[in-house]
Write a structure and sequence with these properties.
The complex is a heterodimer of chains A (400) and B (358). With 400 residues, chain A is α/β, with parallel strands linked by helices. In chain A, 38% of the residues lie in helices and 20% in strands. Chain B is an alpha/beta fold. Classes of the chains: A alpha/beta (400), B alpha/beta (358).
């Protein structure tokens, strides 16, 4: 196989490994080799002094430690019938440094040969993880060296096409513009694609329940859901829906606790304050029924008196929240559009939200989690069972 | 009408109390007009300010974010009264601001610009060198900021020539002839900061020619961003120009298409001055509170001129600070400011777009 690799920078692997990829044998799902490799990678990352300052690297390292992976393996009950599809080509996002490794983990566990394009933006987290992999692949896990390449290249339709030509699965992390660009490169007839487009998320809080909780802990969790990623992750709530009888009391406490944290910990840039103000003015000048509530520019809240699908087009990040009081839980249906990914809940049964999804047959909501846990690492994402989707089922008349 | 009273005044002789009361009266009048004649503005005031249109202090006057003019078409006069639409000079693909002018507003802008600039150049018209190329004015229907600037300042020129060809080559022979013809007279030069440096200064420096512009007055604007990238300071800009053409009177200005006319001219002490027709308030981005003088923050600009669009109070995306008020050694009253340039785009985290265009 010929690939013009002059313009590729290899962080893991090399030109020969890349060219050999289509010929390498795939592995069964959750093969011992890969589980062992991930366990060793976890140890390397936890031992690297540089990791300490990166919460995301540490969480990733815990997620792939042997016990954690084995627990997840046991949930994949049909794994004996599954094997890798072949070469999995991942296009990782530019601003979530550890995401490439998360995507890679599912791909390797599925049994694939994994090729990842990471962003040209330099992140120390990427270096830490690639250094650890290189160390393992050069030595103890040399027999897996043919299975992984991590590369960088300046965006190029030609290179993307060449890499797409050899892949069996293509995984594109959004946003929408990236997906549109990457899709210009056609896939081989048998190849499948998984895309992770722009999404947004909402939170639903029962006021009575909230008032019985430790308000500081709830605030910390919600801060992690939002400000920790500039409220710009797909899973970051943009809308907070309140239910219950003590909404006024609960809201007051909730936002004041969050505000304290944001003022203390969030490094807000001037342009974010202006952008939030601009978003609100655009919304307020074009629509009726908006009310701005904010004491400062850290937490900008807009009370809305009804929910409708287009509302979320006016979302912003960096601490910009729509707020709505729902008499009935079913009131949230209009915002459960295709773009809605995660509903995080506090004092609401997750099954009640799922029931709404089923009852109305809405296009959105792939995930319902507890408030404070939207950033958790999972093998099920955006409605995909990641490892299954990247693998192939070999059928002999049995389902597992 | 209060604006007429203001237009009769010298731009720089009113100190704080006098100026603020004049400006406040005019801005309250404008707020009320926008409220009554622009439904979007009415909603803005209703939603954010409980329908209030009279304020007791300039600090309290509601401000619109500058980007709103890119996102909405805001007018406060009937469509048939609009005779000119100004646009910001956004690069291709970007949304541009649209500013709708009626004859009255456009006339005021020109009048005020004249009042301000003649404080620096004197009242008479002068032979003028436009440091730009003729093609910038070709499309007369959509006035870009660059074209609008040239047209506005052309009023100070008697005879005019363009310094550059459409390929941005310096017309050096033509300029020499022009200077010979008008030798002994004050020559007025106008252009954009970066283009002056790139195509005028650098060219003269390269070919080692000197143009006799010792009697010239230069006004330039458009911002320092590109020159800061080339590490050219304001001092180097002036001394560089002095070296290639002997010019001593060089004035920067701060202004924007959203508030044409009310420009902030640089005085002999290097300070940008607010005139009686406009003002600057610096805001703390944490909570939009007013910063004390000397403190850095976001620039809010006030102007007494916009009648046909709701642009009398705008929160810009520039950072700046008020250096002082009424006490600049140059003798001009009012606030004098420094502008640090555009706010940086935030490098946001989260799973937004990954596509990187080279």
């Amino acid at each position: 196989m010929q690939i013009n690799t002059e313009e590729l920078e290899f962080l893991v692997g090399n030109h020969d490994i890349l060219c050999e990829m289509p010929q390498i044998s795939v592995l069964p799902m959750f093969s011992d080799k890969i589980v062992a490799f991930l366990g060793a990678l976890s140890r390397e990352l936890l031992n690297d002094k540089r990791s300490k300052k990166f919460v995301d690297v540490i969480s990733y390292a815990y997620w792939i430690r042997k016990a954690s992976i084995e627990k997840n393996r046991d949930k994949h009950i049909d794994r004996k019938c599954r094997i890798g599809r072949g070469v999995a080509f991942h296009v990782a996002p530019s601003n979530v440094p550890v995401n490439f490794a998360v995507s890679m983990t599912s791909s390797m566990l599925a049994g694939n040969i994994t090729l990842i394009r990471v962003s040209n933006k330099k992140f120390e987290q990427v270096d830490i993880i690639c250094d650890a992999m290189n160390k393992l692949l050069e030595d103890e896990f040399n027999y897996l060296a043919g299975y992984i390449c991590v590369i960088r290249y300046d965006h190029s339709d030609i290179i993307t096409q060449e890499l797409s030509d050899i892949c069996d699965v293509r995984i594109v992390w959004g946003g929408n513009r990236t997906i549109r660009e990457i899709r210009k490169a056609v896939l081989p007839p048998r190849a499948i694609e998984m895309t992770f487009a722009d999404r947004h998320s909402i939170a639903v809080i029962d006021s009575d329940y909230y008032l019985l909780q430790d308000a500081d802990e709830v605030a910390k969790g919600f801060y992690t859901d939002t400000y920790y990623t500039d409220q710009n992750a797909c899973s970051s709530p943009r809308l907070v829906v309140w239910t219950g009888n003590k909404v006024e009391e609960a809201r007051k406490l909730f936002w004041s606790k969050l505000g304290e944290l944001a003022v203390k910990d969030y490094d807000m840039k001037p342009i974010q304050a202006v952008d939030k103000y601009t978003s609100f003015c655009t919304l307020g000048m074009g629509h009726k029924g908006m009310k701005l509530v904010s004491d400062d520019n850290y937490v900008v809240r807009i009370e809305v008196d009804n929910l409708y699908p287009e509302l979320m087009e006016y979302k912003n990040s960096g601490g910009y929240f729509f707020e709505y009081y729902a008499g009935e839980l079913d009131d949230i249906v209009p915002v459960l559009t295709k773009q809605c990914q995660t509903v995080s809940v506090l004092g609401i049964d997750k099954k009640d939200i799922r029931d709404i999804v089923y009852k109305y047959g809405v296009r959105g909501v792939d995930r319902i989690v507890l408030l404070g846990q939207t950033m958790g690492l999972e093998f099920i994402w955006d409605g995909y069972k990641m490892i299954e989707n990247m693998s192939r089922f070999v059928y002999i008349g049995e389902y597992e | 009408m209060i604006l007429d009273t203001m237009l009769d005044r010298n731009p720089y002789t009113d100190a704080h109390t006098e100026k603020n009361s004049l400006l406040l009266e005019r801005l309250n009048e404008l707020t009320d007009h926008y409220y009554n004649d622009c439904s979007e503005y009415r909603r803005f005031i209703d939603v954010l300010h409980n329908g209030r249109t009279k304020y007791d202090s300039l600090d309290d006057i509601p401000f619109l974010p500058v980007k709103i003019f890119k996102q909405m078409e805001l007018k406060c006069v009937p469509d048939e009264d609009i005779f000119k639409t100004m646009t910001s000079s956004g690069t291709t693909g970007q949304q541009v601001s649209k500013i709708f002018l009626d004859r009255q507003t456009a006339g005021m802008q020109q009048k005020v610009l004249t009042r301000i600039v003649s404080e620096y150049t004197g009242n008479s018209r002068m032979p003028m060198i436009i440091l730009d190329c003729p093609s910038v004015l070709k499309n007369r229907n959509m006035f870009s900021a660059r074209g609008a600037g040239i047209l506005g300042f052309s009023l100070f020129g008697s005879k005019k020539i363009y310094a550059f060809t459409d390929d941005m080559e310096l017309n050096i022979d033509e300029i020499r002839q022009f200077l010979e013809k008008y030798s002994g007279q004050t020559i007025f030069l106008f252009g954009f900061t970066y283009m002056i440096w790139q195509y005028f200064y650098k060219k003269l420096k390269d070919i080692g020619e000197y143009l006799p512009l010792e009697n010239g007055v230069m006004i330039h604007g458009g911002g320092w961003k590109k020159l800061i990238n080339e590490a050219v300071s304001k001092e180097e800009f002036k001394s560089g120009l002095n070296e290639v053409c002997g010019i001593k009177s060089v004035h920067d200005y701060y202004g924007m298409v959203e508030q044409t006319g009310c420009i902030y001219m640089e005085c002999e002490c290097g300070h940008l001055h607010a005139s009686v027709f406009s003002d600057v308030i610096i805001r703390d981005m944490k909570d939009f509170s007013v910063c004390e003088n000397g403190k850095r923050g976001a620039v809010q600009v006030l102007s007494s001129l916009p009648w046909s669009y709701p642009g009398h109070s705008i929160l810009t995306e520039d950072m700046g600070c008020v250096l002082g008020e009424d006490d600049c050694p140059c003798g001009r009253k009012g606030k004098y400011i420094e502008i640090y340039g555009r706010m940086k785009n935030a490098e946001v985290r989260g799973c937004s777009d990954t596509f990187e265009k080279k």
